[in-house]
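Both lines are quoted verbatim for reference:

——
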Amino acid sequence: MKNVTIATAFAAGLGAAVLGLAAPAVAAPTGGNADATISQLEAQGHRVVVNRLSGTPLSQASVVGIHKGGDIRSTVRDDFNDRTYQNTVTGSLYYVDVK
């Protein structure tokens, strides 16, 4: 019974840690400079699709909305442990509305 309790607590803690790490990636600022926001998302490993709502250049445009799409999955090689992990989430797709 003690082993089941420890395993359950560990699984719950691991799930909370994963969700806690994922939350900051979603918190991209709106209303800010479009160039900076797009660069920030791309630096975090995400792919960005820009939806232009005006003809304003990105360097002068403002972000009016960010919508998260699906996850980007790929194969990741762990040389330290000599393992390969398939179907690993390596980023997300974001749709950024700029004006």
